Amino acid sequence: MRISGPITVATKPPLPWKNGGGATRTLVVEPEGAELEDFSWRISLAEIHASGSFSAYPGIDRIILLWRGPGMVLRSPAWPEHCLIPGLGPFRFRGEDEVTCELLGTSAADLNLMVRRGGAVGEMRSGSTEIKIAVPCDNLFVLCAAGSVDVLPGNGKRLVLQPECFLNITDPDAEIAVVLSAPTARYVYATLRRLC
């Protein structure tokens, strides 16, 4: 088991989009240092400043979750219109889908999990209660959204995450607990499993 973090989101440099409509911070990518063409999976945080089209990622399964702001409306010929607003869970779609985004305010931020189809599978969920996450999974990612949460990786350690701090656990070998510091604490977690 290898633990990376806690890491603050702000320490990850934002990469501005070519169209000027926003910027993306890559939080975790597998394999480490992989580019968009050759990653197995990737978790990023996007700041969106203008409505527009999403980039296409053929062969990639995507899960998106509103992180900050009033939200956005996602439209695609491949599925019914979807509102990404506070309080709603993650939304899954294919990277090859043609998608446009209409902001419901002046800006928004979203958390993205991108998984290369056939090479890995992933899930992303938001939580506001204490949980225990069972193995097997090859990676566990936890990001604190509000309050603070303690992550207990089963090795006697207690890792404290403050808002906008995250950690990534590679090859966890025991059940992992996420414990809230207060009733208002919230977090997001993702589990990843390699297929080959």
Overview of the molecule:
The mean pLDDT is 93. The protein is mainly beta and 196 residues long. The relative contact order is 0.23. The protein contains no helices and 19 strands. The protein is globular. A hairpin with a 5-residue loop joins strand 2 (15-16) and strand 3. The strands form four sheets. Strands 2-3-4-11-6-9 form a six-stranded antiparallel beta sheet, with no helix packed on it.
Features of the shown structure:
196 residues, mainly beta, Jelly Rolls, 2 domains, six-stranded antiparallel sheet, five-stranded antiparallel sheet, 0% helix, 57% strand
Order of secondary-structure elements: EEEEEEEEEEEEEEEEEEE
Distance between the termini: 19 Å
Radius of gyration over all CA atoms, rounded: 16 Å
Tally of helical segments: 0
User: What is the class of the largest domain in the CATH system?
Assistant: Mainly Beta
| Average of the residue pLDDT scores | 93
CATH superfamily grouping of the largest domain: Jelly Rolls
Strand content: over 45%
CATH third-level topology of the largest domain: Jelly Rolls
Largest sheet: 6 strands, antiparallel
Order of strands in the sheet with the most strands?
2-3-4-11-6-9
Number of strands: 19
- Helix residue percentage: under 10%
What is the overall silhouette? globular
CATH architecture verdict of the largest domain: Sandwich
Query: Segments where pLDDT lies below 50 for 5+ residues?
Result: none
How many separate domains make up the residues?
Answer: 2
